[in-house]
Design brief:
- This protein is mainly alpha-helical and 164 residues long.
- α1 packs antiparallel against α5 and α4 packs antiparallel against α5.
- The protein is rod-shaped and about 135 Å long.
- The two termini are 48 Å apart.
């Protein structure tokens, strides 16, 4: 009886939306995240190589300006400055991605943890209610057995008097 009550509480706490979210998380965990994360170390190594190259001979890119000018290069007068700009932009992009990923993960875990704690509290309250009801039923059972014992004794006395 107690087990079926606990199962009912669990079913009540897990709505269809929550079951759908859990399924999405399971499927999401099966995704091949390596394909997205493996290029990162290579990119960082390339940024390091750019910084090393920037220490070599400097020259101007002004001689080979494309039609419409450079769209992203801020300092075409110095090849070193361009390499440092590219490296810094890459570093900033990785730092921003790291910051946003950390915030997203933190938010997901915090929300999930809060929700799990709330559900645990609800389950504990339900378990306490079930335990209390169980004790009440046991006490009631004892009273009924005592009343039946008294009734039996009274019936036996009455039967004895009747038979005398």
């Amino acid at each position: 009886m107690e087990n079926s009550n606990s199962m009912a509480v669990v079913k009540e706490l897990n709505t269809g939306t929550e079951r759908k979210d859990l399924t999405v998380l399971k499927v999401d965990s099966m995704c091949n995240w390596e394909q997205f994360l493996m290029p990162a170390p290579t990119s960082i190594a390339i940024l390091g190589q750019l910084m090393a190259i920037a220490t070599k001979k400097d020259f101007s890119l002004d001689k080979t300006i494309p039609e419409g000018g450079f769209k992203f290069v801020k300092y075409p007068g110095s090849f070193r400055a361009c390499l440092v700009q590219i490296s810094n932009s890459g570093c900033e992009a990785f730092m921003e991605a790291h910051k946003k990923a950390s915030a997203a993960v933190k938010g997901v875990y915090e929300d999930g943890l809060k929700e799990a704690l709330e559900k645990m509290k609800l389950l504990q309250m339900e378990e306490k209610k079930i335990e209390t009801r169980k004790h009440e039923m046991e006490d009631e059972k004892k009273r009924i057995i005592e009343d039946l014992g008294k009734a039996k004794s009274a019936l036996e006395k009455a039967l004895t008097k009747f038979l005398e």
